[in-house]
Amino acid sequence: MCTVVCRWEPGATVHMLALRDEFVGRVFDGPGQWWPDQPDVIGGRDRVAGGTWCACELRTGAIAVVLNRPDRLVAAPGAASRGVLPLLAIRHGRAWVDQLDLAPMASFNLMLVTPESLDWWTFDGELLEHSELPAGVHMAKPRGLAAEPLAPELADPARWQGALRDSVPQADPSGLLVRIDRDDRTYATVFGQLITSSPGAVQIAHSRTPHDPDTFVRNEWRAAQLR
Question: Of 52, 114, 118, 128, whose CB count within 10 A is highest?
Answer without folding.
Answer: 52
